[in-house]
Amino acid sequence: MEYETNEPKHIKVRGARVHNLKNIDVDVPLHKIVGIAGVSGSGKSSLALGVLYAEGSRRYLESLSTYTRRRMTGAAKAQVDEVLYVPAALALHQRPGIPGIRSTFGTGTELLNSLRLMYSRLASHRCPNGHYVPPTLKVAAEQEILCPECGAKVHAPSAEELAFNSQGACPKCGGTGSVRTVDLDSLVPDDSLSIDEGAVAPWNSLMWSLMTDVCREMGVRTDVPFRELTDREKEIVYHGPAEKKHIFYKAKKTNQAGELDFTYFNAVYTVENALAKVKDEKGMKRVEKFLKEDICPECGGSRLSDAARAPRLRGIGLAQACQMPLKELVDWVAGVPDSLPEEMRPMAESICESFQTVAKRLMDLGLSYLSLDRAAASLSTGERQRMQLARAVRNRTTGVLYVLDEPSIGLHPSNIVGLNAVMHDLIADGNSIILVDHDTQILSEADWLIEMGPEAGAGGGYVITQGTIPEVIAKKESMIGPFLAQTADMRIRKPIARQACGRKNVCLHLTALAVSLGLIGELVNALLTGAGNSLIGRNDDTFNACQVIQRLQCHNHNNGRAVRVGNNALVLQDVLGVNLRHNQRHFGVHTEGAGVINNNGTGFHSVRSKFLGNATACEQSNINALEGVLGGLLHSICFAHKFNLLACAALGSQQTQFCKWEVSFFNKLQKFSTNSTGSA
What we know:
This protein is an alpha/beta fold. The protein is built from 26 helices and 20 strands. The chain has a six-stranded mixed beta sheet with strand order 5-14-15-3-16-17, sandwiched between helices. Strands 2-1-4 form a three-stranded antiparallel beta sheet, with helices on one face. α15 (381-395) runs parallel beside α16 (416-428). The protein is extended, with a radius of gyration of 33 Å.
């Protein structure tokens, strides 16, 4: 029997007032890619997430039974007069939740499920005597397998027995890949103190104070600085045996005294014993300052037990396969069927095909560099969002409204092609997509575009224009239209003319800047992403900016010391294309011979005085070049100046002249920074 249907073509929103939305009415096409554009704060997410997703998910939950709803978090009704024909909605948020310690890229994408199935059904398994049995169909048929070498019965682990979140977990770390061990350096933070003065920190906070008296009975001197103890005495403090000693104990705050028999707890065992008894977060805080996290010595960080690491497929175990980047793993999996006996190949091809289908989608989304054992908590928000997107396509749903909140975050322009393909696949399955983004390359794929604005905050919340991409481009009131048409006047920083540089080789003195480690990362990142590329010359026919970086010191504000920047300096050397050591000699400053900041500041002063002596060699054009190369980063450098002033204060009065120069120099940088960013 056929039914006449009047299927709706649009989601009808009437009177939306969420956040800054101004009581708007809008029709959102169904079964289309609908882009929502506008300046930041214009109301894009308020419409997409605050109205469409909120109502779609709320109404789906309300269709469930009361018993089920009680166990789920429900959303409040959105501030809107009416929303009609909204499907059940799923949102791929801009900032997905951070996964737990047991989640990896392999578990999050479910690629590890297919890989575990391969190792369970297709691998060579080990007998109790260490011999490997060739791959056989008996594993899938659950038939008895005997070792051809020794006749022992072979157990082929199931896929569940190869899971580190289940039966295949390493017994040492419990499937986390890391273990907490006692940090010996934290046990005696100040070795100038004696044990009587509290040198052994765990005995002060985790153990009775009488452990000092027991330690004395163990043959350790407790009245001399810890650093003066012999190696044997220190070994007793750290790892001494649990022997019972007879001591005479006298309380420090009262006149009470008495004889006791007490077992010696060394410093390491004191921490381990306290850790075993921890029952709440408060107790953990007392113990965790004495702990450090290391790779599990038993599984090597693979999270798997020895039995789970035993099966071999194409010559490697499951742990080694999980360490491969996805691109290499895909090529490896492609060769699995041909490595097996003829009768096993149809089953192998079926398992491998399911793996390849999911992997291809992830590679299209630009995740080919990730390995399956990568901890999910270490992934960026963009990477986690793309994992969600790939999973949504794999589920092959229909009639669902997908709300994508800036999915282009972290994507290289070449990977946006893969993202577009994913969206079109979702539409082909009968779903609808709401796309919130700023990237015109991905917005151009939208079948319908809604532009919010015209301003941010209170000045936004209106629908400026809507229509197909050509229709939006044709409307004068559209602010994004010229960018979609690529006719907008893109504001870029004007490069410095060669004549303005004054000299062919411009030297930028960044000598002994006390900057934070984070700032060095910003500087390298900015140079890599194109800040000042016109000045970072690698061709002598133009000119070479930054001919010398004489010394970089980073001020570690956690411990107040200045330390050398080894790898960072090498990274800068590679980016700038200059030979640091050669130019250091040319300008009279040798990095390797310069000392770090010490108590009297002589090391820092020697480098700074050499720099000041050479500073006059640079012309005024150097500042212009500095402005061109660093641009807006000068604000960050001036911020790092605050750390440098801390170093000045630590150096004492003998460095007064240096500190005066420092203030003057960074004030000039601040002025040039303001001018350059204001004219950008």
